[in-house]
Structure prediction request, 146 residues.
Amino acid sequence: MKCFEDIIKLADEKILDAECLIAGGRFDGAYYIAGYHIELLLKAKVCKTLGIDNFFDFGNRAKLLKNENDISRTYRVHDLEQLMILSGIFSPFEIEIGSNLEFKAAWSIIKDWNEGHRYLTGKTQRDAQDLLTPINKFKLWIQNYL
Prediction:
């Protein structure tokens, strides 16, 4: 089962994986894997907000609703901004963006991550670290809502 706690644990493992990849000089992989930390934290929040026991089995619940494919597809995205809205914490997020320049700067880096980075090469150690640093800042913020 991929319940809230499982997804949080998986998110934490992605950060550890990214750190190991950086230590091993695998910067492209580190950059790619690190972004999943934020995606998973947001998906965990979606689970909690909607009372979904198993995020990755959301489709079975959606079958109870009309247009189930459209509904489950909405949640099965890698788009961090869309997940932020679906998580139910978009309003406090907007407030934080508007009042905290450091948080806004961190998000401006994080939001550019997407699953398509798995196909890209050429990331440097600095690139990977420049993503991990804001991810850790975001993690501190989102923990208030998990």
